[in-house]
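During the reporting period the student researcher (J.K.) took over the structure-prediction task from the postdoctoral fellow and processed the backlog of single-chain submissions. One of the processed entries is reproduced below for the supervisory committee.
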Amino acid sequence: MHPLAGTQALVTGASRGIGRAVARALVLAGAEVYAVARGRADLEQLVAELSVAALERSAPGRVHAVVCDLRDAAQVAAMLVPVVAAVSQRHTVLVNNAGVFPLAPIVDTAPETFASTIDSNLVAPFRVLHTLLRPMREAGRGHVVTIGSVADRRTFGGNAAYAASKFGARALHEVLREETSGSGVRATLVAPSATDTPIWDPIDPDHTPGLPPRAAMLRPEDVADAVLWAVTRPAHVNIDEVRLGRA
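J.K. obtained the following structure tokens:
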């Protein structure tokens, strides 16, 4: 009933949306989850919610609130210390989910916005992966899940910064898969189509031409189910890529 009992997991962008749903799924499956985000209040609310949920379901999982700006190398190094220390003793799951979603035509995208998007969506997850991958390989086990997007293969107008970051994240995943094949470390890309999360709030897709209405989007729990499925396959099975679309 708790296939991830004894596992530690680090989920970035865990305070809302897909990250929050993934953290919940992993905790209820028995994992000890380090929930990473920048907002302390939202993380503390998540810890309270998941602690009650785990107790109600007699799940051995628990959750830690980790306040961290993933764009800050020093903060990342500090928050990873307890995770790295336990990699040799415990199966470790990394879910690189945190990111930003600016929408604007190329001519209206400031170079600073483009660079910031690449930093948040590509450099920051690489920074976490770079720190955890060596101890995972030395332990001969671990699982890296990259949350991708339909926009990592398909281009849309007004999507230059986000698409560039997600195409890069997919490429990083594919290199990771090549480099970890046969090592015991698994790598999975979970790429959903539009998903109804707070990331859409400032955009208001219901009243923006060319965007799907929120009622027609996937739910965060749909993506979390795919992550949970991938990380609970037998150790000899790697799910290279999962692409999710609305039926």
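The committee noted the following: The chain has a mean pLDDT of 97.
J.K. will present the remaining backlog at the next meeting.
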